[in-house]
Every structure is written in C-alpha cells, then in structure tokens.
Amino acid sequence: MTRPKLRIATTSLAGCFGCHMSFLDIDEHLFELVELVEFDRSPLTDIKHCGPCDIGLIEGGVCNAENVHVLREFRNNCKTLIAVGACAINGGLPAQRNHLELGACLREVYEFRDGLSGGQVPNDPELPLLLDKVHPIHEVVRVDYFIPGCPPSGPTIWKFLSDLIAGRTPRLTHSLMHFD
Amino acid sequence: MTRRFMFDGQPVAFEDGQTIMEAARAAGHFIPYLCWHPDFPPHGSCKLCIVKVGGRHVSSCALPAKEGMEVESNTPEINAERRALLQMLFVEGNHFCPSCEKSGNCQLQALAYELEMTSARFNHIFPDRPVDASHPDMLLEFNRCIFCELCVRASRDVDKKSVFSLTNRGIHKHLVVSAESGRLGDTDFSRDDLAANICPVGVILRKRVGFAVPIGQRIYDEKPISQVSMEAEK
Fold first, then answer.
1. What does the domain layout of chain A look like in residue ranges?
2. How far from A153 is each of A21, B102, B106, B114, B152, CA to CA, in Å?
3. Would you say domain A6-102+132-176 falls under CATH 3.40.50.700?
4. Which domains are delineated in chain B?
5. ipTM for the complex?
6. How far is the C-alpha of A58 from the C-alpha of A67, rounded, in Å?
7. Chain segment B200-222, per-residue pLDDT in tens
8. A-side interface with B, Cβ within 8 Å?
C-alpha cells in the first residue's frame, strides 16, 4: 500500500526568494521529495491560491496588507505552518525600516533620491498598502516550527523536512543551526 | 578530605570560596552565561547561569559552592528558562544576525544555537537606537546591547577611564558614553582598551576590519559555545 502524498504549499512574503533558492539547493533530494509530496500553491507551481495542505512553508516577514491575507490563507489551510528564514522569523532586512517613519522612508526613496526629479510615492489602488512596521509571521498567526538562517542551507531545509515527513520531531544539529 | 557537591547527578570537588560556576567549570561542566567573565567579580545580571539548588533558582556565578549541594543545570526545565531569557534579549534589541559583523563570534547568538532557540517567540519591540560612529577606530552599535556591563566594568576597573555606563531602569535602560556630547569620539577611549575588546555581542566593533573572516568560518560556526568556552578553561 502506498502512502498518500503529503501536500506542501510555499510562498514568499516580504522576502527575497533566497529561501526558495536554498530549497532548490537540496539538489538530488528533490527526486526523493517528489515521491513523498506534491505541491499546492507555490512559486514552483504557479498555483495562485492554497487548498488544504499538510505543510506550509513561509518565507519573508509581513510588510503589507496582501502579506497578511496570504499568511492567513496559509494558516487556514495548512496543518503545519513553518517560518523559513530570518525574515519570517524576526522580520529580517525589511524590518530594518521599523525605526523609521514610513512616509519619510517612502519620500526618501521616491522623491529625494539622487538623480530623481519630479518623482512621487506610488499610490496605484492595485498596490497593497504597506504596514507601518514589518512583522515576523508569528506576530500575525500561530506558527508551528521555525527554520532559522539567511537563508537556511539546503541541508538544513532537507534535514527539517525529511524529519517532519517521516514523523520525527524536527531537530537541527549545531552545524545546521545558523542565524546568518 | 575534598569537599564535593552534586552537579547534574555527578560529584564536583570544590575549594573554599569557589562559586558553583567556578567549581563546575574546573570539573569540565559548561554553564551558559553572558555577563560572567573569569577576570571579573560575579555580576549576576544576565541570569543565563541560573541553576536549581534545593528547589530554588540561584545564579551559579555568584553563589559559593557548599558541601552536599544538589545542583540542577543542564535539565529541560532550566534550559527552557534560559531560552526564554535569550528570547527576551532578542526582542528587546535589534538583533539582525545576517547583517551583523559579530555574527559567528557572538556569544548571544552562540547560546541561542546551544539552547536550540529557533525563534524569538515574543513580539519584537524594534527599538530606535542610533549608532555612534564618531570615534576614529571604533563603532558603537547600541541596537545589540544586552546590558551585561562588561564594557562598563572593564573601562572603569581595568582601563581606569569609565567611558561607559548604564542609565535608566527596566525597558528604558540603555548604554551611554560618559562625555558631555555623549559621543565616543569625545572620550579618551582607545581600540587597545580592554573595554574595546570585551563585548560578547556586536555593540563595540573595530572599524575597517569588517568581515575579514568570512561568515561560516568564525568561532561558533566551527564549534558550539559549550566546547569553545571549556577549551579556554584548560
């Protein structure tokens, strides 16, 4: 009897897709993985909305209204939700704007930057509204596990996922545990 | 006759006046710490070195060892409490490891690895603490300060300059520079001071040597802090 495949969804919120690149760095383990899982919503499948899943992997923190919606969709659909990488865990690089006033930050980039003249802050209604601060995802939804790193290495992601899929409590040994 | 106490179920010999920390380390047992330093009297502020003695929590860096004590240190209960202390330190400051020059050499980060802290768990405060780059050789990155007072003590007691002090209380506590302008460049601080080389985290940094050793090849990238710290003991 073959075990039904687990469903995995992945997304990048306020992240750089570096964690997704690192996920692809598990290299030949990808062949093992596709025997065990199938992908739901993910940049790898281009499926736009998440259905019921076993595992959700979230890269990036929460910096705008759309991030909040996507994150809640994942939490509502994924049995196990995992924060992947520094930005999902503590806001990371985007959160380094948190001590600045948002309006001043936007004007600095779009109006006052060297070489710009007549620029204005984008205000197209299709653009998601920015939050005044960037938040780690655990400040918005309940998170089951965290895989630290910027990005977590391929071996780290593989160790964690293979433990989880096999039903073991995922545990990172010293060489796989990095915040940088 | 040698006097002993029990440390995690193992006998540890001690001499009069030795603290639990000193005796345990001499016997090869690592106890996590941030504000303790072998060359300074115990400070007892970080509480990472808490152990349980007779059901009570005590700072092992400060409590003298006594005959027959039963000390619990490396237990799931105590380590969970140490992890919670680390998590509070992480949310109180701005600890962005990927962009920190101290990453890999940082004791706060290394203890987080040691105690398997994968998230800061609490809500981040994201305080606003501007950096001070006024000194020609040194940089002050207040965002990472954990208030261990090692720089304060080293500058006051060894360098005899009293460049640093802590001011205010509770969540408003912060490190200040003792100059009328409040800037490091207006003090007689030197990069050869002990205070310039004692910070366990990435607050007091030397300029122009950043990332000379690549990330991934630094002290705690190679070995866990429990190992590195005990090698210094030998």
1. 6-102+132-176
2. 10, 20, 20, 18, 38
3. yes
4. 3-74 (3.10.20.740), 99-222 (3.30.70.20)
5. 0.94
6. 10
7. 999 999 999 998 999 999 999 99
8. 83, 86, 89-93, 95-96, 98-99, 133, 135-136, 138-139, 143, 145-148, 150, 171-172, 174, 177-180
